[in-house]
Amino acid sequence: MKHRMAKRRRTHEIVTRLKSKGLIDGVGLEMHLDGTKQFTKQDVIATMKSYGVPVYVTEIDVDLAHVPGTREERYAHQAQVYGNMLAACLESGVCKSFAVWGIGDKYSWLERNSSNADATLFDDELNPKPAYLALLDILR
Q1: Within 10 Å of residue 2's Cβ, how many Cβ atoms?
Q2: Cα 38 → chain centroid
Q3: CB distance 63 to 110 below 8 Å
Q4: What is the DSSP letter of 111?
Q5: Tell me, what DSSP letter sits at residue 132?
Q6: Helix, strand or coil for residue 73?
Q7: Cβ–Cβ < 8 Å for 132, 121
């Protein structure tokens, strides 16, 4: 948690400095999320708004390597995280894009470290997982 806070504070310092010089007009976020960490929708909304410029989620995946439970429980947790992050993007009023990272679990860059990462919206056979369906529900 301390690392995330320090990283967020440092990012704000950089954005503020660049804005004061007219050198920035948006912030891109690579959201490679560890499924064991807590990411509340309200915190993400507040962070996005705090930059004072448009925000672009340029990459998002949710690593399940260390998330305990059955496959169904892990996938349900992942669906909730993905859903909360898309909802935060939409509700923030400043988020202009939301791009997922990876085409399927077995092709994910995270699978190099753990075959249990299962970080994308699609399983090894490219079938949609609950996270994909959660995003569709939000977008309807």
Answers
A1: 6
A2: 12
A3: yes
A4: G
A5: H
A6: helix
A7: yes
Tokens of 78: 């992942």
Which whole-number Å values give the CA distances from 56 to 27, 36, 112, 126, in the listed order? Answer: 6, 24, 27, 26
pLDDT tens-digit series, residues 61-113 = 999 999 999 999 999 999 999 999 999 999 999 999 999 999 999 999 999 98
Query: Which two tokens mark 62?
Result: 């949710």
Per DSSP, the residues of 7-72 read HHHHHHHHHHHHHHTT--S-EEEEEEEETTS---HHHHHHHHHHTSS-EEEEEEEEE-TT--S-HH
Specify the residue for token string 């990411």.
39
Q: Is the pTM higher than 0.90?
A: yes
| pLDDT given at position 11 | 85
Nearest by Cα to 31 from 15, 47, 16:
47
CATH numbers and ranges of domains, the chain: 26-139 (3.20.20.80)
Question: Ramachandran region of residue 102, left (φ > 0), alpha (ψ -120 to 50) or beta?
Answer: left
97: β partners: 56
